[in-house]
Amino acid sequence: MLAVEVTHSILELENKGWFKVDRCFDLHLINRICEEWDNIRPYYESIQRSKGIFSATKNTTHHNIINMPSLLELLEVNPLRNFLQDFFNGPYILNTMGISEITYGADTYTQKIHRDVRSFDGACNLWINTLVLLDDFDEDNGPTLILGGSHMMKEKPSAELFKRDATSVAGSAGDVIVFHGNVWHAAGENNSRTRRRRALTPFFSKPFIKQQLDYAEYFGDSKVELKTEYIKQVLGLNARVPKCVEDFYQPDDLRFYKSDQG
Predict the structure, then answer these.
(1) Contact between 76 and 26 (Cβ < 8 Å)
(2) Which of 51, 60, 117, 181 shows a CA-CA span of 20 to 30 A to 152?
(3) What's the chain look like in SS3?
(4) How many angstroms separate the CA atoms of 197 and 80, rounded?
(5) β partners of residue 179
């Protein structure tokens, strides 16, 4: 993104809590993500069934980055990198990432009015969600519903207020909806029997906030080769917590938690 676009986008976030970027990601990459997800879903579903929570988590999977190479590529080529750096006023990390699908007649938890951060921190720039459209979204297969300005609302809005004032956001595969972590939103209803409605949600935060899965531990254990310093930063390898006193006392260049991580 150009510097002027970054400035404009941050103003949009401050004022209404969200904005959309058209044609953010190449469709070849989007199609690869969809193919990998369809192949890996049985792995997640088997775990969900074994834990007795399949019905509560149906059509959603979390932390797909550990077994979907296309998602590491998506982070690397992310055109929002400069914007995220400006929003957080410094380094940031991937807090979590998941993929969900709204099917015909479904009633999933993502369709309920919610926000992605349970604690309310006002307008502090601690969290941001980027919803990547993996399919075209419209009124037929389910837009995303966002209540503008609600990042300043501590309490959940009523269903009546949300229905009246929420914006119905449509878009094309590869577009990205960016919204503050405090924004109240919901996935729309899929009224199509034939069209899919899938979304990827890379969720970013300040480095000192705990990740929902320890990506630094997973990727730092040499399970996957991380090719760039940027990816190491985003996955949290510069904001690790020492496990013992010997790990804590280190020269600056070997510190587990780097001095620029906030």
Answers:
(1) no
(2) 60
(3) CCHHHHHHHHHHHHHHCEEEECCCCCHHHHHHHHHHHHHHHHHHHHHHHHCCCHHHHCCEEECHHHCCHHHHHHHHHCCCHHHHHHHHCCCCEEEEEEEEECCCCCCCHHHCCECCCCCCCCCCCCEEEEEEECCCECCCCCCEEECCCHHHCCCCCCHHHHHHHCEEECECCCCEEEEECCCCEEECCCCCCCCCCEEEEEEEECCCCCCCCCHHHHHHCCCCCCCCHHHHHHCCCCECCCCCHHHHCCCHHHCCECCCCC
(4) 23
(5) 18, 129
Return per-residue pLDDT of the chain as tens, 262 residues.
444 466 668 888 888 999 999 999 999 999 999 999 999 999 999 999 999 999 889 899 999 999 999 999 999 999 999 999 999 999 999 999 999 999 998 888 888 999 988 888 776 889 999 999 999 999 999 999 999 999 999 999 999 999 999 999 999 999 999 999 999 999 999 999 999 999 999 999 999 999 999 999 998 866 667 879 999 999 999 999 999 999 999 998 889 999 999 8
Q: Is 96:234 a contact under the CB 8 Å cutoff?
A: no
Instruction: Yes or no: say if 203 and 118 are a contact pair by the CB < 8 Å rule.
Output: no
Q: What are phi and psi of 162, to 5 degrees?
A: -60, -45
115 in Cβ contact with 185 (< 8 Å): yes
Residue with token string 């550990």? 66
- Beta carbons of 199 and 100 less than 8 angstroms apart: yes
Q: Would you call 67 exposed, middle or buried from its count of C-beta atoms within 10 A (0-12, 13-18, 19+)? A: middle
What are residue 91's phi and psi, to 5 degrees? -65, 155
